[in-house]
Design brief:
single chain; alpha+beta; six-stranded mixed beta sheet
Length: 258
């Protein structure tokens, strides 16, 4: 009997762990309430507009629930998640948690508890909300996915080293490499989300498509999509990503919204 009980507990523990590691379904729309339950007025302290902006920075398409919604969402609210902010009173800090629910009330995303020790209400609520929303990436996305149109290649150090040193212009880097360039166009607008080292580019899914790392040159980044490394820079006022594939220089046009 003890043997079966131990086996049951082991399976139960494994099941709980598996549930915690199941990827969250992809939603691109979030509806933000015009008023939070713990406040007295609509958009008090500008928190509701602030949450909308923070979610858009994360790659979501956010709307206030009192706004004119696109027909797609107005006809089917199940296409969007609903945002809810929970407050936990404390004597020494302001604590807020962001919860995103589906149309059936199921919790799809729950942030960490954002905290602030500011005494004034507006900065305290703002900082706590930013702290909470800041934890969403690791909860919803996990390992950044790779664009399906790119196949694994061995990175070539030449363009990356040039980006780091930033001693030449983009045109010089291109002409210095004796390889034939192939042009591709990346589909859809990518939204730039600031990171500690640069930006991550997110599509409407939302998925992280490309990571950008700052260099000493303006508008010049090291690009990494998970399988290929290269350079991202402006060419004729358009953003491009260049990297090597099978000894050939590949140029992808990017539409980036910073």
């Amino acid at each position: 009997m003890k043997k079966y009980l131990s086996l049951f507990l082991l399976l139960l523990s494994f099941s709980g762990f598996a549930q915690n590691t199941i990827p969250v379904p992809n939603y691109k729309y979030v509806l933000v309430p015009e008023k939070f339950g713990f406040l007295k007025e609509k958009n008090q302290y500008n928190l509701n507009i602030r949450l909308k902006s923070l979610l858009e920075d994360k790659g979501y398409i956010a709307y206030l629930d009192d706004a004119n919604l696109p027909t797609e969402i107005a006809n089917n609210k199940c296409l969007a998640l609903s945002a809810e902010v929970l407050e936990k009173n404390s004597m020494f800090s302001t604590n807020l948690t962001l919860v995103l629910k589906d149309c059936k009330g199921n919790i799809i995303v729950k942030s960490k508890e954002g905290k602030s020790r500011e005494k004034e209400y507006k900065p305290a609520f703002t900082l706590a909300l930013m702290d909470a929303v800041g934890s969403i990436d690791e909860i919803t996305r996990g390992t950044p996915p790779v664009a399906t149109t790119v196949t694994p290649v061995q990175p070539v150090a030449t363009p990356v080293a040039a980006a780091v040193n930033a001693t030449t212009t983009a045109a010089t880097v291109i002409t210095a490499v004796p390889a034939q360039a192939t042009a591709n166009v990346a589909s859809g607008t990518l939204y730039a989300q600031p990171t500690g080292t640069g930006f991550q580019l997110i599509d409407n899914t939302p998925k992280i498509v490309l990571s950008l790392f700052k260099t000493s040159a303006a508008d010049y980044f090291i690009g990494d999509n998970g399988t290929a490394k290269g350079i991202v820079f402006k060419k004729d006022n358009n953003w491009v990503f260049e990297y090597y594939k099978n000894a050939s220089l590949i140029t992808e046009s990017l539409s980036i919204k910073f």
